[in-house]
Amino acid sequence: MEKMALTVQNSLLFSSTTFPKKNSSSPFFFNKRNKLFGLPLSSSKPTLRIASRNNKAIKCSISEVTEPKTEEKKKLMRRADIRNIAIVAHVDHGKTTLVDAMLKQTKVFRDNQTVQERIMDSNDLERERGITILSKNTSVTYKDAKINIIDTPGHSDFGGEVERILNMVEGILLVVDSVEGPMPQTRFVLKKALEFGHAVVVVVNKIDRSSARPDFVVNSTFELFIELNATDEQCDFQVIYASGIKGKAGLSPEDLADDLGPLFESIMRCIPGPRIDKDGSLQMLVTSTEYEGHKGRIAIGRLEAGVLEKGMEVKVCTSEDSCRYARVSELYVYEKFFRVPAERVEAGDICAVCGISDVQIGETIADKLTGKALPSIKVEEPTVKMSFSINTSPFVGREGKYVTSRNLRDRLYRELERNLAMKVEDGETADTFIVSGRGTLHITILIENMRREGYEFMVGPPKVINKKVDDKVLEPYEN
Fold this sequence. Notes:
By secondary structure, the chain is of the alpha+beta class. The chain has three domains: 3-275, P-loop containing nucleotide triphosphate hydrolases (Rossmann fold); 277-367, Translation factors (Elongation Factor Tu (Ef-tu), domain 3, Beta Barrel); 384-474, Elongation Factor G (Translational Gtpase), domain 3 (Alpha-Beta Plaits, 2-Layer Sandwich), CATH 3.30.70.870. It is 19% helix and 30% strand. The chain has an eight-stranded antiparallel beta sheet with strand order 16-15-21-12-13-20-17-18, with no helix packed on it. The longest helix is centred in the middle third of the chain and has 14 residues, at 214-227. The two termini are 27 Å apart. 43% of the residues are buried.
């Protein structure tokens, strides 16, 4: 039977003779089918040491990343001064509050600066509903290293936002509520991260709740790793216990440090730096776009290889046979909570590029002469659809200023430029359009945004999207 390594706390009364041994640095083994698993995984020693105040006790087996056994190994290197991470969680598990504490403790803001709660939720709808809808970038500095942090949505309807940003990171912080444990979005996001081969640090958040059950949550999370066919290295994940609202973290639920030092140490030790081809041809996959009035469209992504400079002529590729040329007018990197102008960006860092007015998500910004396109971004298919049509009631034009089918069509197709998980197609009439999304909330947010922008239209009831495969009708389902 298949075995895998597991480090156990000394509080578990297992003798070394209970489990079969083999040549490995870990002292105990267990059987996946029997599901014998215990408490947080930490170091390769049988005793889990609690982090001291200088946070030097954290060790991770997953920090020793296996190098690729290919000819490219000679060219690829890892940057030790950068970490790219995504923070993912089920909705209302305290992810955004934890990000707030990370920003404050790394001195992103002045000591006397007034800072609102849920800093990363800048959208009006996000603040009103108390959920994250759009992915956002920021960065902090810890011990001379730059940590690029991407805050992601927690609702499964916005899973497309999570899927595309996983291309920019090497690891994720999986935030799990200390009472509820893994939830549907936890499963979905973790499955995608494991498919990418990313390292995972599990953060058991809200550990200060009186009903917290950390042992159950860690064991349930570990079971989820096994169900999703995680590798042995991925299953040996680091567990950090935290209270985002208090800004504390530790290796034990009973002994939290006075700050988030153990969490930052886990990021530095357990999440590898980006593997780059420093001397290769320029390659950057566009994973997000923004728009500003005086800058135009802004392409955001991680530089995979080479160097990108301001004023540089580049090639924009959708595929090897579909390329066009452009010039980089402005170049930005993320420092603290802001975009900062840069003259030059090296491979491994996340940057924002201006000057390419027609750039789309999934395209590659490459070297003008020798650049090649990277694999495009693929996301899960939509599950529900709704019809959008112009308002034909007697009160048309009383609540909105954009009422024609041309206005409606332009706005819906413009949404596709940023929202990869959404699809729009023409309906049965010239005034009707079919909008498909990942869920009813996904489409509801679009409707609310359009209403606030002054669009007036009618919508039909949501309908489940069925597919016919091998003469069988299939419908979407959720585990």
